[in-house]
Amino acid sequence: MSLRELRASWRRLLFFFLCVAVGVGAIVALRSVIQSVRIGLMSEARGIIASDVLVQTNRPWTPDVRKRVEGILADAPVVARSESIETPTMVRAERGNDVARMVELRGVESNFPFYGTLKLAENHEYSHALLANHGALVGPEILVQLGVAVGDRLLIGGQPFTIRGVIEKEPGRRVGAFSFGARVIIDLADLRSTALLGFGSRAGYQILLKVEPDGVSGLTSRLREALRDDFVSARSYLALEDDIGEDLERAENYLSLVGFVIVVLGGVGVWSVTRVFVRQKIKSVAILKCLGATTRQVLATYVAQVAFLGIAGSLLGVALAEIAMRSIPASVAASLGGVAYGLTWSAVLQGVGVGLLVSLLFALVPLLEVRRIKPLLLLRDVQVARSLIARVDFVQVATGVIVAAGLVIVASWQAASVVAGAIVSGGFAGVALVLYGAAWLLVRATKPLANARWFPLRHAVLGLRRPGNQARVILLSVGLGCFFVLGVRALQQNLIAEAVIDLRQGSADLFVIGIQMDQVDGVREILTRHQNGDASARLVPTLRARVSAVRGREVNLESFADVRGRGSLAREYTVTYRPSLEQNEEVVAGEWWPPEPSRLPAEQLVSIEQSIHERFKINVGDAMRFDIAGRPFEAKVASVRRVRWEDARSGGFMFVFRPGVLEQAPHAFVAFVRGPNDTAGRAKLQYELVSRFPNITAIDARDVLARIRAVVDNIVLAISIVGGIALASGVLILIGAVAMTKFQRVYEAAILRTLGASTRLLGTMVALEYSALGLLAGIIGALGALVLSWAVSKYLLEIVWRPSPGLLTAGTILTAALVAVVGVIASVDVLRRKPLGALREG
Length: 842
Known about the structure:
By secondary structure, this protein is an alpha+beta fold. It has a 6-stranded mixed beta barrel with strand order 2-3-8-5-7-6. Strands 12-14-19-16-18-17 form a 6-stranded mixed barrel.
């Protein structure tokens, strides 16, 4: 019976099959990609940090810390050790041009790396001898940017280094890590001989350890415990495996949850198809029961049919996922370390399982209407029979509750979180209820138009009120699809707006960092000269500080260990001192200090950023102790500032101190300047800075912006693909919903044609009906997307929310037009069908 039903009804059920396939394909492909990446990265975990254990700090090793580290390592099963130092700096070619570029410089010893392979271009083999006598290995970008080649010399820290090779792959540099420049590797002793590691440098100091396998965890724990108050961290490849696994598992679960949402959209279509299908089969089921078939047999027939379609659609989804995996460009795989992509059995089994479960769960409630079809219904009018089986009974309600619980379980399974599954299911149900209620209000609100004089409008309104009309289903499917697509697009615009640095006329777009106190006048002179005498360069003093204690009315942290228990409060901050507020700041609590204190203040004051006040309950009047340049320093909170971080170049500091004390401490400066507009002028400015002051680093905001845009473009591409899949699912559901109502329209269209209605008139009626549904679905979906983008921006991403009215308006209009066009196209055969055949069948 199931096979016979499929042969007779396959055209009606085709879109059900496709909806399941699209959703399952999304789940399988997304999970397989993430799992493939995780397997590839986890297998090279040691190579990612180039050691078993990595000890690192962003401060020079003090004799006391070094002594304690050596004491711990002396008793540990350490097989070998190596040291490394990393620091950003500027480099330029010794001859040929005046271009300077920022790089990430790393000094290594002869036994680097312990794990992984330092691969060079053209299959050259790496040897530390390449770095001897001021040799250097450079990233391929340097060759293009500076116009140099292997054998040429670079000036690094004022000293010449000969390029001896081009880096193709480097162990110890995490895959996908963002950086401000290309990598340059030199010998550690040569790095120490330069002036790049003086006070104010932003260097990172590392000790790489090769350890016996059974001693990795114990050594890491001992180092962390002994050095936790000295701003020294220790991590092992085991922890890195956990980090990578957790990060990728979150991504896998999130993307699979998106795939689940797409499958649920298909499930709405399954419910729609099954509901209408059962009502079309009233006479057939009644005849079967007259011939002795039991309700259980009939129900089993249709459940088997749904299960078959669910499995077949899922298998098609697996095939689509395989095609997608084979379509991944080789460049993408190479960027992630040459990971071999392919379908994983766990992803395939999960995708097929979800497709089958969703198909059965959504079809079960409408299929239960078969129970109330009696043989006597053969003698009744079809519409009366449909109204009788449409009544909901207790069994259907109880089954609906079980189905809802099943969907929550499946969602939780996909998200690996009961809370996340419940939230997604609850949010989906909330939007669905709003859409379902809106359909009821639409029918009510348009009731007076049933008496309109314009014939197409009058009959379009009557079509909305037709028994068995799919208005609710269309609103539900299109509204959810619109909500999802517009939501991710609005969020995408917020992310792009947050990432983009405004380069308006007069604002700074070049930042010079690492300026020492005795270099201030020389740097200011160079910057002012390149600005044609315009003194637009601002030099801001900066120091590095950590919060080591807080004493206040809401929180009392007596030691750095207590501060560390508050999470990010213990991190190292860049702080400054100045007499006045910047343009992007305003005081929201307390008072700002006088711009020019008449004498050295007896009590130091500090202004904190608003998020510090809100997250850690630090208030005006509280006392804070800081560790600045290795010395304790106390200050009283004088005010709380709100900072507009989108314009952070004017004052993006969490802590600002009153002038009068910190000037005596050794510190560095950062210059904010509007660089020349032409490329040659910018290169000349950077060249002059680096050649005169080798320790200085200039960050060109335009280069940084290009990198940020590249990252954002990848995010946009991923969002667009997922949104496109959701949109495709919504369109499939819409086509199916319209197709399933054709049998009701055929007889009506035949009557109207007999009475003189033209194809154009019938098409206008259909277009008006579906335009109203599409417009309402678009409005509700756009409003939901507005709320979604606001909530995610504010509470999850913590970025400035921008409502994107143009996008939401355009999305609403396009949704209405799409629904109208699809509705008319799907109804073409009904509108053009000859009336005689339909009247005979009726």
